[in-house]
Amino acid sequence: MLVRLVRMFLEGAAGVAVTSLIGLYVYQNKLVYPSWAQGARDHVDTPDNYNLPYVERRLMTKDGVEIRAFDIRREDSNTTWLILCPNAGNIGYFLSVVELIYRQFNSSVFIYSYRGYGFSQGSPSESGLKYDADCVMSFLQHDSFYKSQKMVLYGRSLGGANAIYIARNYPQMCDGVILENTFLNIRKVIPHVFPWLRYVAFMCHEVWDSEEEIKFVDPTLPFLFLSGKKDEIVPPEHMETLFNLCPSDNKEIIEFENGYHNDTIVQEGYWDAVSNFLNKYV
Question: Which top-rank group of organisms is this from (predicted)?
C-alpha cells in the first residue's frame, strides 16, 4: 500500500512538472517580451508632447506585419540615431531621452515599436523582431534623407541584441554602435533572473545569441559599451565578455559603479561618455 502511494505521488509530481515545463515553453514569449504590462499596448505618448516634429510611419514587414515608428528629423543634422528599445514598455516611454538626443546632440532620431508592442501589429518573437529590423533598415536605406546621414545604433538590453544583429547584417549603413546593459544570450540570463529555471534554460527558444553574433561585426565599426556594475538582471560580466569578443578596432567600455539595469542611463558621466565616443569615432 505504501509503495503504491509513493508511486502515485511521484507520478503526480512528474505530471505536474511536465505540465509546468510545457506551459513554460509555450508561454515563454510572455516573459521575454512583456509588451502587455502596465497598459503599454493601450496608450503610446507621441513626440509632440515634447515639442518634437515627427511623422508616424507605418511600415510593412516581409511577413505582412505592420509596425509603427516615429520619424523625428532635424533638417540641419548629419547624424541619425536608430533607437532599439528594451523589452518592456513602448516607444513613448523613451521620448524624454529622444528629446535629449535630438536637442543635445543635434541629431535626427528614428524609433520604432517592435511587433506586438505599442500600436504595432503581431506578436513578438526573435525571428519576428529581426524581420522588423530588416524592414526598418530597408526604409532607411531607400529614404533620400536618411541614406545621406551617418547612422548610430543605440540599443539597451534587448535593444542591444537588436543593434548587434543590425550591425552584423548592415555594416555599410552603420557608423557607430552604443550598447547598454545587454546580454550574451537569453539562456545565460535565465539562471540569474530565475535561478529555479537554470536547469531548463535550454528550453528557451528565444535565444538572441549576441555572444556569437558580435564576433562577426565589421572591425572598422566603432562600439561603445555602457555597463551598470550593479545590474540585477543582466550580469555585468556579459557586457565585459561582449566587449572582449567584439573585433572592432575602435571600441570602448565604460562601467558605472552604481548603475542598475534601468538607471545606468542617469548615472553621472553617462552622456559625457557618449559625447566623447561620438566626437572621437563618428
Answer: Eukaryota
